[in-house]
Structure prediction request, 61 residues.
Amino acid sequence: MADQVCRECHRIISGQTCPICGTSNLSSDWSGLVIIIDPEKSEIAKKIGVNVADRYALKVR
Prediction:
């Protein structure tokens, strides 16, 4: 199964529901990838509003 992205928090997941926000509102049409390793020290994580280390899509359609 191809990776999908949660439309709510933009987290890239491979299941049917997002483990962070619990929604099943997913999209397979996304672009851009950012990997957050340390969200507390990351300026990018602060800019996009991320609190959990993971992979995130920059644009979700």
In short: Helices lie at 43-48.
